[in-house]
């Protein structure tokens, strides 16, 4: 049954089509939150209201929650890797069962990433629960992150979808490493579908630093949005969900076509914006 689904997905063929301007603008908009997590302090994330910060010293997991009253949403942003402790977490690549999902083939995820996420999950859930009151009760929820922060953001997605069922939830990640196995990719796709946006810039090697292994190891979840050339724009960014010979989130016409699997300059600049550039003023 499992491999039948893989073969069915692999049979999809189409020409890659550039994203529309609204999709591209959203990718850029949420990257500004992801970049701002690297700032020492960010009083107005992407110009919006800072609700709170969160951190766990043991796992060195950090981020913030902000509120945008124009878009009517809360944004949970995770910082990516910055030091040796983060690197140690990154290298804990053993696949472990994803909590709360049963069945003959439960999804498995990266041990270091799920441990990091679990270290701040109660704080995030409690903060969002307290924030979704009064005029903010209907606000949407968006999880974002760059690098390993993207892995934590996608792990947040099911929490948001299952805990706050009356609130629309989305995920935006940038330069995210592979985070789970094939069953996890199916799980994310079935639960969240097009609400997940996994962006890759040109030859960024971090999304492939953990090798692809469809049968026993790691597989990317959909949907990939690949900016394949300069200048970055809607015209040079394609949605990769059902193009080429796709195995869930692995598409040979998108970033999988580029033979890179190490950190490089493309990992640190998305949409012409350096990841070191913060957006923290009103």
Topology:
Elements: H1 2-10, E1 17-18, H2 21-36, E2 49-56, E3 61-68, E4 73-78, H3 84-90, E5 95-97, E6 108-110, H4 111-131, E7 140-146, H5 148-163, E8 169-174, H6 182-192, E9 196-201, E10 224-227, E11 237-239, E12 269-270, E13 273-274
Parallel strand pairs: 4-7, 7-8, 8-9, 9-10
Antiparallel strand pairs: 1-11, 2-3, 3-4, 5-6, 10-11, 12-13
Helix pairs in contact: 4-5
Protein name: Alpha/beta-hydrolase
GO molecular function: hydrolase activity
Keywords: Hydrolase, Signal
Protein described:
The protein is α/β, with parallel strands linked by helices. The protein has one domain (2-274): Rossmann fold, CATH 3.40.50. The protein has six helices and 13 strands. The chain has helices at 2-10, 21-36, 84-90, 111-131, 148-163, 182-192; strands at 17-18, 49-56, 61-68, 73-78, 95-97, 108-110, 140-146, 169-174, 196-201, 224-227, 237-239, 269-270, 273-274. It has a nine-stranded mixed beta sheet with strand order 1-11-10-9-8-7-4-3-2, with helices on both faces. Helix 4 (111-131) crosses helix 5 (148-163). The termini are far apart. 46% of the residues are buried.
């Amino acid at each position: 049954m499992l491999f039948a689904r893989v073969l069915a997905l692999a049979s999809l063929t189409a020409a890659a089509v550039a994203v529309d301007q609204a999709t591209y603008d959203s990718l850029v908009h949420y990257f500004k939150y992801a970049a701002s997590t690297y700032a020492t302090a960010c009083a107005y994330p992407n110009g919006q209201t800072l609700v709170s910060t969160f951190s766990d010293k043991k796992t060195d997991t950090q981020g913030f929650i902000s509120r945008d009253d124009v878009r009517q949403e809360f944004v949970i942003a995770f910082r990516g890797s910055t030091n040796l402790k983060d690197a140690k977490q990154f290298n804990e690549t053993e696949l472990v069962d994803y909590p709360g999902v049963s069945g003959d083939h439960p999804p498995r995820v990266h041990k270091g990433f799920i441990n990091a996420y679990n270290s701040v999950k109660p704080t995030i859930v409690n903060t969002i629960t307290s924030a979704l009151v009064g005029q903010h009760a209907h606000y949407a929820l968006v999880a974002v992150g760059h690098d390993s922060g993207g892995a934590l953001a996608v792990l947040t997605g099911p929490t948001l979808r299952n805990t706050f069922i009356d609130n629309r939830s989305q995920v935006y990640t940038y330069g995210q490493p592979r985070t789970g196995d094939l069953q996890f990719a199916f799980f994310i796709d079935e639960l969240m579908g097009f609400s997940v946006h996994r962006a890759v810039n040109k030859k960024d090697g971090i999304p492939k630093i953990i090798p692809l292994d469809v049968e026993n190891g790691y597989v990317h979840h959909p949907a990939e949005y690949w900016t394949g050339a300069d200048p970055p724009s809607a015209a040079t960014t394609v949605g990769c969900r059902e193009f080429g010979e796709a195995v869930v989130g692995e598409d040979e016409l998108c970033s999988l076509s580029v033979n890179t699997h190490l950190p490089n300059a493309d990992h640190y600049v998305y949409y012409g914006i350096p990841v070191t550039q913060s957006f923290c003023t009103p």
